[in-house]
Amino acid sequence: MQYEAPETTKAAVSLLAKAKGSAYVLAGGSDLLVRMKGGFIEPDLIVDIKRIKAMREVKKTASGFSIGAAVPCAELGENKALVKAWPGVVEAANLIGSKQVQGRCTISGNLCNAGPAADSVPAMVAAGAKAVIQGPKGKRTVPVEAIPVGPGKNSLKKGELVEAIVLPARKPKSGDAYLRFIPRTEMDIAVVSCGVNLTIDGKGVVTAARVALGAVAPTVLLVEAAAKAIIGSKLDDAALDKLGAAASAACRPIDDKRGTIEFRTKVAAVLAKRAAQIAYTRAGGK
Amino acid sequence: MVTLTENTLANPKERVTPTVVHNPGLAKEAFKSVGTRPLRPDGLDKVTGRAKYGADFNAPGQLVGKILRSPHAHAKIKKIDTSKAEKLAGVKAIITAADLPDLTNGDKGMYDILDNCMARGKVFYDGHAVAAVAAIDAATAKAALKLIKVDYEILPHVTDVDEAMKAKAPVLFADCFTEGVEPKPKKASNIAKQTEFGHGDVEAGFAEADVIVERSFKTEQTHQGYIEPHACVASVSPDGTGELWVCTQGHFVYRNHCAMLLGMDVAKLRVTSSEIGGGFGGKTHVWGEPIALALSRKANKPVKLVMTRDEVFRASGPTSASSVDVKIGVKKDGTITAASAELRFASGPYISMWAELGAMTSFACYDLKNVRTRGYEVLVNRPKSAAYRAPSAPIAAFAVESVVDEIASKIGMDPVEFRIKNAAKQGTKSSYGPVYGPIGIGATLEAAKNHPHMSAPLGPNQGRGMACGFWFNFGGQTCTDLNVGPDGSVTLTVGTVDVGGSRASLGLCVAEELGIPYNQVKCLVADTGTLGHNDMTDGSRGTFSSSMAGIFAARNAITVLRERAAKMWEIPVDDVVWEDGHAKATGSGHGNLAPLSLKEIAAAAANTGGPVAGHAEIVADGAGVSFATHIADVEVDPETGRSKIVRYTVIQDAGKAVHPTYVEGQYQGGAAQGIGWALNEEYIYGKDGRLQNAGFLDYRIPVCSDLPMIDTQILEIPNPNHPYGVRGVGETSIVPPLATIANAMSNAFGVRMTHVPMSPPRVLKALEAAAKA
User: Fold this and answer.
1) Which of B45, B302, B733, B748 is the most exposed place for a label (fewest CB within 10 A)?
2) Nearest by CB: A189 against B142, B642, B697
3) Residue B198 lies in a domain
């Protein structure tokens, strides 16, 4: 096994592009090292991106926030401007694993790992986040939902890696929220999860919304019908019921050790309603 | 070669005869050291990381051992080809069952242990060991495992206990004819054994009843979940002697079992126990240790074998999954007229006594005229079921205490009052046979009734439940040395592994008996070469039995100390008494002899007869049964079925709490494990018979933030069989939680929960069923 820790993105791309055999990007390692220890993978090349300075920064720009691929989730929670603008994304990132894990893990890693139950992904999808990809053919930017293509599989091509996650600039009177269901209080994996992001007008009417569900399909789902259910409403009971129904209708889960189809489908509605209410309050709705 | 009987758990029948009969005249009731809360002697090393656990032992030149395990639930091993693996550089030994010839000489219990350690012709569960490798490092050992080719013929399997009892179920053993049935069945089945307990006429009792409640329950398989995986270093020398450093609850029993399976003399295998990161019954059985010894013998090097967490789940010994029917009949005034239970316990592939213990404990809390319980040990394609803290009693209590609550409610009686009315007392003939001495069930119930928890207000979506629990406790063989050093400090050497602070408790008892300060005593756990046989730390016997032996050893040392003082004073020994840590001259004619301290006598020992010591070898009989009552408040999210324990109280009889902090720790620990079992822990098998959740991510034990602070109340109803009144306290605390939480949930939303764990999907289903009805 070859271990490399390049100091530039260019060098990282070059290493990945030239790799023979299996190559993996190492950020926090909270997934990769566990899989290696469990004997599930035996990498030939590991490219550690933590020494690439640009990837260690959270930048606030006119067009929003850029979160470097090697920024650990705990740092997101310490960035006041980010917490204020995107509380749902940050709370999702700070639910992953334990405090210790949060000191290592990254939202880029969470995204590229392509787990259907990844905590930060529904929040990022709801937020309309984009992934900045660097590769042998240069840079491209895609919506985050385009990265995972199935459990454990992502759409990155050979030599490519995610350099940063970009969250858009915040419109006034907007709010987001993320909720997940776990049987315990922490250190668990979502049985079902939901991220909601919305904007309201001066009267409290929802003018824009995005609803994403986790752990109910092979990849995180962006549910347009659920968003439509609340756009134009003041999030009254009827709108919430429609939202719940749309969320349940979108579920395509499996029965497994973590939950049943029936349970996931029902609880998706409950979480969607509760997350929407939190997002609405954060947007300034009453 | 010695012949051994397996004694790997609390033997409630106590077939052995006590060797030293406790003299009630010497019983103590007022204490100076006992009942105080000094720091434990192992505490500092544990919190600073200096303590040596199983995987912390290393030997010069040691190899790494790894085990190849079956991916199939049930299969014939047609062929094992190790030739490629043997050629891999760095591989020093490979063993299969062929390297562990059967030396058990017709001892079925030992044969089953051998078969479980390394499959002999057939694999019976996902994770069953089929071969093992010793290599120079872990990577080489892992690579070698991949080169071993096992040719399996897959057989139909059965993992569910009820399915395994059906006529068409695949039968694990063609020679399994149910024991305990007359005449012997003609057809082989998976029902290995049937047992029955009780007295009176149950049918007549039910005929007298005004109200009868009958219900069926199911519990899923759970693991003890100890944080430290099984680990050992084995070293067998060409001269036939061996050493084993191991994490265990009983190194003497491990020695005996390993020696027999390896064909060694017991005296030639020296076993040293490490500190233990949890056992709860799971470390009362040998698993990889005989394999490590066999690898070491073949490689002629020490071999270290450490299980991964995946191996711990798949291939150590979880508790049984079960299916239980309970029927209770009552008069309108609350008198129970009859009670019966049928318990079907999954035993793994080997015969056990888990259903039997369930059948014995089911109704042990109550004074019943007519009672009958029947247990079935059922063989399934799961790992061998092992002891788990008061084995089987939590399962039986879940079913029985649920029905007790329901029937009390049906006749409009308060659940505590109903239990008080029917509680067993001194003189009650227990449902499993013996007549009780002084016991604490009534006292724990009265304490529960008066506890502020019982009358505290409940919030929305909350319910309160209570339940009782019983455990036998055990005494067993115990051998202890007490040595007085030249400076008067005292070493107490015991053979019971310290799993919960027993070194502190034993030090306190010996300090008490000698009349010296606690910090003058150091308690050690000795290796098997140093003391005579000790049974393992199970059946809540560690403190009970070793304190009894320690106190007897102290008394023997006092006899020596009096003799030495008499010599120093040149007076008759009969004129010397031992009081407050000093020899004192009594009677007339000795003038004003100043008392001699233990230190002074020790300092003079070289001139008065040599070192001062006391020994005791006993069968610590009369462990004294144990009872507890628990109260819980549970909050349920009606939309998701998620539950939260908001308040929890444990009330238990300790006999005498030697070190109250560690007694409370046992109460809290048992309750915490019970809460995990009640809510989320379960083995999940796929249709292929493979375990789906062999890790702590998906086998959900509670994390700290899942639990409230667990309140405890210690009651002390002295055990008349122990010099200080001590009863075992380690296990009973896990017995009531399943039922306590089920009763609380039932009170929260009016639905009786009959399937443990009461996980959110099950609770949500029950809530919806209730809403429809």
Assistant:
1) B45
2) B697
3) no
Do B571 and B670 lie in one domain? The reply is no
With CA atoms as reference, the chain B residue closest to A98 would be B703
Task: Find the CB nearest A183 among B310, B680, B705.
Answer: B680
Based on its alpha-carbon atoms, the radius of gyration of chain B, rounded to whole angstroms, reads 27
Nearest-by-CA chain B residue for A270: B639
Nearest-by-CA chain B residue for A37: B308
Please count the structural domains in chain B: 3
Residue that finishes a domain, picked among B574, B590, B619: B619
> Per residue in B281-307, pLDDT tens?
999 999 999 999 999 999 999 999 999
Q: What secondary structure letter does DSSP report for A40?
A: S
* Chain B residues touching A185 at Cβ < 8 A: 703, 705-706
A263 in contact with B at a CB cutoff of 8 Å? Answer: yes
Task: Identify the pLDDT of residue B592.
Answer: 84
Please name the member of A184, A259, A266 whose beta carbon is closest to the beta carbon of B702. Answer: A184
Same-domain check for residues B346 and B280: no
Ordered by where they begin, the domains of chain A are: 2-49+57-168 (3.30.465.10), 174-282 (3.30.390.50)
Domain residue limits at B288: 54-155+230-306
A36 and chain B in contact, CB less than 8 A:
no
pLDDT score for A129: 98
Residue B9 pLDDT: 36
Residues B589 and B504 in one domain: yes
Residue B19 pLDDT class (50, 70, 90 cuts): very low
The verdict on B764 touching A (C-beta cutoff 8 Å) is yes
B762 to chain A, any CB pair closer than 8 A? The answer is: no
Mean pLDDT of B263-281: 97
Contact A36, A155 (CB under 8 A): no
Angle, CA of B443, B444 and B450, to the nearest 5°: 90
CB-based burial label for B464 (10 Å; 0-12, 13-18, 19+): buried
Distance CA A262, CA A251 (A): 10
The shortest CB-CB distance from A185 to any of B693, B705, B765 is to: B705
Instruction: Give me chain B's average pLDDT, please.
Output: 95
Given an 8 Å threshold on Cβ–Cβ distance, is B759 in contact with A183?
A: yes
Mutation pick from A37, A263, A271, A273 vs chain B, by most beta carbons of B within 10 Å, is: A263
Q: Are residues B611 and B725 in the same domain?
A: no
The yes-or-no verdict on residue B462 having pLDDT over 60 is yes
C-alpha B311, offset from chain centre: 20
User: Do B614 and B631 share a domain, yes or no?
Assistant: no
Side-chain half-sphere of B236: how many Cα atoms within 13 Å? 19
Q: How confident is the model at residue B27 (pLDDT cuts 50, 70, 90)?
A: confident
Instruction: Judge if B359 and B247 occupy the same domain.
Output: no
Mean pLDDT of B91-115: 97
Predicted confidence band at B49 (pLDDT cuts at 50, 70, 90)? very high
Predicted confidence (pLDDT) at residue A245 exceeds the cutoff of 50: yes
Nearest alpha-carbon partner for B393 in B413, B422, B363, B425: B363
> How many whole angstroms separate alpha carbon B735 and alpha carbon B626?
11
Whether A183 sits inside 8 A of B642 (CB atoms) is: yes
Q: Confirm whether B763 is domain-assigned.
A: yes
Domain boundary among B619, B641, B675: B619
Binding-face residues of A in 129-158 toward B, CB within 8 A: none
The rounded distance, in Å, linking the Cα atoms of B314 and B308 is: 10
Asked if A184 lies within 8 A of B680 by C-beta distance, the reply is: yes
Retrieve residue A162's tokens. Answer: 């995610």
Could you tell me how many CB contacts below 8 A there are between chain A and chain B? Answer: 49
Question: Considering only CA atoms, which of B148, B129, B119, B143 is closest in space to residue B64?
Answer: B143
| B122 strand-pairing partners | B76
B742: closest CA among B394, B223, B448? B394
CATH of residue B600's domain is 3.30.365.10
CA distance A171 to chain B (A): 33
